[in-house]
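This is your field. Pick holes in the following sequence-structure pair:
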Amino acid sequence: MIFVQKRGPFESNTTVFEPSGPIKLRYLQIGIEYPHSIPISEYEVDANNKVTYPGIFNINDSSEYYVLTEKDVLEFSNLTLEKITVYFSSKKIYSDPYLTINVSYEEQNAD
């Protein structure tokens, strides 16, 4: 198993993990950290008085969205994906220099 890490700040609201050559890969695990926080912080409120969380993520354009606060780690294992795309909900998140994405993969069998 091989481990890859990408750290912010990212240039856009998507980050892609995919093979860069002819070898097929199988992505097995993904972990997202948004670790920088101060001991007491406030959540921002939008125009409708709804709390806007620090991190909202979508993986591979699914219908599921994940909230990640500054003290959380979002982690998935036992995956068998050929490509991972992480979508960030706001520039505040993807431009954060402390945002970290860890992915592990292995070469796929040619069966």
Summary: The beta strands are 2-7, 14-17, 25-33, 44-45, 51-52, 56-59, 65-67, 73-76, 84-88, 100-107. The domain at 2-38+47-107 is CATH 2.60.120 (Jelly Rolls). The mean pLDDT is 80. The CA atoms of residues 39 and 71 lie 10 Å apart.
